[in-house]
Write a structure and sequence with these properties.
The complex is a heterodimer of chains A (about 230) and B (about 260). By secondary structure, chain A is mainly alpha-helical. Helix content of chain A is about 75%, strand content about 5%. Chain A has a two-stranded antiparallel sheet with strand order 1-2. The two termini of chain A are about 30 Å apart. Classes of the chains: A mainly alpha (about 230), B mainly alpha (about 260).
Amino acid sequence: MHISEGFLPAQVCIAGYGTTGLLTWFALKQINRQGNPNEKIPKASLLTAAFFVASSISIPIPPTSVHLLLNGLLGVILGYFAVPAILIGLLFQAMFFGHGGLTTLGVNATMMGFPALLAYYIFQLRFNLGSKKQQSSSPSQTQSHLPSHRQSLRQLGIFAFLGGTLGLALTAFIFFLLMVTLVSADFDAQAEQTAVTYLTLAHLPLAVLEGGFTAMLAVFLQRVKPELLTGR
Amino acid sequence: MASANFETYVEVESSLHSWTPRLKLLSLSLLMFAFAAVKHLPLVLPMLCMTAIFYSASRLPLAYLLKRLRYPGLFIFMVVLLLPVTSGDTVLAQLGPLAVREEGLVTTVLVVCRFVSILTLGFVLLGTTPFLTLLRAMRSLGLPTLLADMTLLTYRYLFETADMLSTMQRSMQLRGFGRRRRWFRIEGKTLLQLSGLLGTLLIRSYERSERVYKAMQLRGYGQLKQPQLAAQQPIDRRSLLLTGMTILAALGIVAAEITFLIEPF
């Protein structure tokens, strides 16, 4: 789901670079706030490389197969580093495969980076929910009703699912909105609105699939390597 | 993915190869944005001619361009099929239930020509500049250190990670993965196995990153406040001339586009 070269007017491409600049500035500011960023750079870079090659994995949906977008998953795992990771991934895709483009890099990065950040915030909400549950129960209840390992995995899976689903659904919405409204000026407004709605709705099953995959992966990582999931 | 060609640079002698990288990056980017601004048919021919001049000046083989255009060309195919029959009111021809419309056809020609021109210019930039030189040029133009370091490290480990994934996928296939496929049914077990594959790839990359960071620390990474950039390559007269001509061409396209907007033909 990339916008290729030549589809968007120059003004939109420049505006895309502007929004990506803002998004990257915000992400870098948050990364610098979190302490020694140098320590996290190799981790984020190697995981970016892993995500880049993982985008070639195809999910069989008989009789065809699909490639996952993975932006929600990037947000869930990398947190604020998802924004530079997406920017780098898109640059490489444009350079090596001609997928996307150099002039549309800004638009594509905002289209995928913004939902990735939202996915990260949604995934972090699980901490708020957990602390509220603890506050609402009395100390004795807390002792006896500590959430079991299975419950916490389920909770983690649900938030990862929401993050993954939102990542693709929001990206699909922005993609179709831009493509339908900006590629040709000769569509009528009502038809444009209908097309955007239906095309986004048609992608909801894929968003659910992406959410399910994100949840499965988050649960797997929680079981095998919990420190890989971004904590607070 | 492991067999994908990540190398875009072609080593031949040309004036574009010796063009100072940061000026080349700036000028060609400006020209690409100018091409993206083209909305009127009379400007399509000059745009294609400029693209052809740049490509022939780069002395890159034609096979390189055709090979690189093949994959992104699949995306443009959808537009060629859809736009002429869905956009506009003026019917040019009726093909059964489908009406070919003038406005849609004009938009298709514009999109396809912009696509080919911008993409070709991009390949000229990448084909005449090694990746690391390009990254250094971006760094000298103000790319933040964190982004530059991440890009460099990602590029460094991309090939090895791709090999790792390829080995893992092969071993899954040898153990019977993907042999049985049911039509019209998504299998949860397959999804679970694929999530395990990606999860293992992430864990291996994460563990390797810890070793890489320790090795980098031992070599002094993070001790300098700002990494020192190597002395800038001096700008020669030919580079200045190429930069001036490219910027003039970009401004010419934008000026012509504005003229067409004010006085439509």
